[in-house]
Amino acid sequence: MRRPVLKIILRLGRYAVLPVVAIACAILATWLMIMDRYTIAALATVPIVFSIFTVAAALMIGLLLLPSRKHRSFEASEEIAPGLWAMWKELDPTFVRSRRTLLIDTDFNASIEEVSRYAGLFGQHVTMTVGLPLLIVLDEPAIRAIVAHEVAHAQLRHTSGGANLRDFISASENMLFYADPDRTITGRIALALLHSMLEWLEREYRALKRENELGADLGAAERVGRSEMARALVMTEACGTRLTDLVFAPLEKEILGAINAPRPPLDRIIGQLEDIRAHEPMIAAAVAGLDRENDPDSTHPPLGKRLANLGYTDIPEIGEIRTSAINQLLSRDAVRDLPARFDGEWRKKTQAWVSVGR
Ligand SMILES: [Zn+2]
Predict the structure, then answer these.
(1) How many angstroms separate the alpha carbon of residue 205 from the centre of ligand 1?
(2) Mind listing the pLDDT tens digit for each residue in 27-60?
(3) How many angstroms separate the alpha carbon of residue 111 from the centre of ligand 1?
(4) Number of domains composing the chain
């Protein structure tokens, strides 16, 4: 029962609240009809029917007045990221059919999202986001496998769900603005119901995402080969661990005691690139990742499972990373300016934060 409900929400997004509103209206209509014949029963149920209808009305208003989402990443045109665009075109046979946006952000991650506005009447808009640390740390073949993985997500139609689910959740949460849980009983009941509903929705969604990851890995392996995909998985896992150990964990510690914003993250990554990619510790990090168990809170299956899905029982030979994909995939100006630009934004935000903390 739960999976079909999740599928409906992933397909309809915020408009999935409409059936709930429709049911509430039907209850109200029935109640009005029985009013004449069973007046006492009707009067006794006033609080219940009234509450249901208030929640439905709040859901409806919440749906209509949903603020639009805005992304904060950097939009990369074909001049800024010629290599990345070329790679996307090469790997995606449906490229011409939909409109595309390429974003670059500061995560060690990549993702793809598809939005069909007005029920798909004006076609699909596909947005791929690639993290700058990924482009700095990994080499071109690894990024190619990652882009192929994202393209496979889009082709297997894994992409529209995420944005729709978030939309649905914010439409449902928006309801609480109009049925205040601090002041009304209806709002309090709505909040309790919403909490348990959102909890299972998130849980089911994470399970579905983990299944999708395995599907996308296989799809990508068809395009770039199994060994390239496996290599990219191992490198992402290992470098992710190395980045946490060498850059992000020390940085977090420094911020806690800082008066001024410390040296920003991308500058550190570029400075410590050789250490991050050192072969021995990287393999050790990959082997440690292989033993990781399935985490119910994660949207990604553990490395061991993803490698097994591609037919590997152990860490395959991955060789060394000698070049940075950023140099081949972004324009020379972007290679110079983009890390500084993101670091500048980071420094401004962190400076404000440490000044408040003093
Ligand atoms: Zn994925």
Answers:
(1) 14
(2) 888 888 888 888 888 888 888 887 777 777 777 7
(3) 7
(4) 1
